[in-house]
Amino acid sequence: MMYVNAAVCLSVLLLVIGLSVGHNVINFKGSDALNSAPLIDGHNDLAYNLYDLLNNNLDRFNFTKNLTDDKVWGTNVCNTCNTDLPRLRKGKVGAQFWAAYVDCASQYKDAVPLTMKQIDVIKRLVAKYPNDMQFVTEAKNIEEAWKNGKIASLIGVEGGHSMDSSLAILRLYYELGVRYMTLTHMCNTPWADASIVNDNSVHNLTNFGEAVIYEMNRLGMLVDLSHVSHNVMRHTLSITKAPIIFSHSSAFSVCHNYRNVPDDVLLMVKANNGVVMVNFYSGFVNCNSSRKATIHDVVDHINYIRNLIGADHVGIGADFDGVLRMPEGLEDVSKYPDLFDLIFESNVEPRWTKEELEKLAGRNLIRVFQAVENVRDTLAKTESPRQDIIDVRDVSEAEVISHIQPGLCQTSKEWDDIRNNSTSRQ
Ligand SMILES: [Zn+2]
C-alpha cells in the first residue's frame, strides 16, 4: 500500500511539474526576461539634450513627468527627445550608460571643460532623483541597484577628443566615475581614426593610441569601439588585454554603414569575449532608402550577430536622444519590452532561450565589465600609471587637417619648439 501511495504521489508530483513547466513555456514572453535580468542600455544622449536645450539647468527639467507632449521636450518639437522616467520605467530599463558627449568642434579648444560639465550634469541628475536612480561605478553594483528598484546609472565619455590627447585627463575621468570611453566620435583624434575613414586611413591607431588602450586596460575603463574606423577596431582588438564593447553599433553585413561592425571584426569580438550593443538608429539598421526602418530591422541585426558569434556577445545600445530618427515601433525608451517579445517570437533556429535573452538584456555587459575589472586588478600588481606623452607634431598635423591654426589654443611648453620653428617633422 505504501508503494502504491508513493507511486500515486510521484505521478501527481510529475504531473504538477509537467503542467507548470508547460504552462511557463506557453505563457513566457520575451519581455519577461527583463523581470529576471537588468536591461542595460549602452548609450543614451539625454545629457547632451540637457546642455543643448536647458544649458544644464535642471531646475527647468522635470524628469518624473511623461514628456511626450511637453512644449520643450515633446515629440512634436524635439526630434531627438525620447527619454523620461515614466517611459524608462515602462521600458523596464535597469541600467543606463549616460553619454558625456561634446561636439567635435570643441576638439583642440574647450573639449575638456565641456566634457566635465556633462559629467557634472549626469551626476546632478542622478542625485536629484534618488528614488529612481543610483550612480554606479562597479559591475557588481548594477544588479544590486536594479534589485533595489533603481536605474543603475553609469557614465561613458563619447569621443577621444574629450581627453585632449592626455593620459592624465583620461585617469581623472576614471576618478570621476567614467567607465567607458568611445575612442572617437565622428572626428579623427591625433591618435585614432573615426569612421568613415577606412582602408585608406591616415593614421589608424598610433603608438600613443596604443598607450591609450593599455592605460584604459590598467584603469579598468571599458574600451568602446563604436564610431572608430574598421581598421582601428581591428588594431584595438589585436592589442587589448581586456574585452571591449561597442556601446552603440549594429551589423555591417545587414546594413552597409561604416558605423556598423563588419563580420571579421564580429569574429574578433567573439574571440575577445566582448559585446556588441546594437544601435537602433534608423540610418544604421536600414540601408534601404525606399522604406522606413521598423523594429523588425533591429530584430534582424540582433539575430544576425547572435547567429554569427553567439548570444554571449550581443547587447542593447539604442542611442536614444542622440539621433533624429528611430524605427517604427521603437520610438522611445518605453519600447524595449516590445523588442524582446519580437526577438523571442522571431523565426530563428535555434530559438532564443530565456537565459540568452537575459544575456542580451544585460548579463553580457556585466560579464564584460567584470572581466575588465579583473584585468585591472591583475595589472595593478605589476603596472604603474603610464607616462606616455603624445608627440605634439601629431597634434599639430591633425590641427592642420582640421583647418585649425596649429598651436592656437595650446600654451604648454611642448609646443614652444613647434611654434618657434616648423610644424613639420624633421
Ligand atoms: Zn554616437
From TrEMBL:
Quaternary structure, from the entry: Homodimer; disulfide-linked.
InterPro entries, sorted: Dipep_AS, Metal_Hydrolase, Pept_M19
Principal cellular location given in the protein's record: membrane
GO molecular function, one term: metal ion binding
Protein known as: Dipeptidase
Entry keyword set: Dipeptidase, Disulfide bond, Glycoprotein, GPI-anchor, Hydrolase, Lipoprotein, Membrane, Metal-binding, Metalloprotease, Protease, Signal, Zinc
Annotated EC: 3.4.13.19
Subcellular location: Membrane
Phylogenetic classification of the source organism: Eukaryota, Metazoa, Ecdysozoa, Arthropoda, Hexapoda
UniProt-listed GO biological process terms: proteolysis
Cofactor(s), names only, from the UniProt record: Zn(2+)
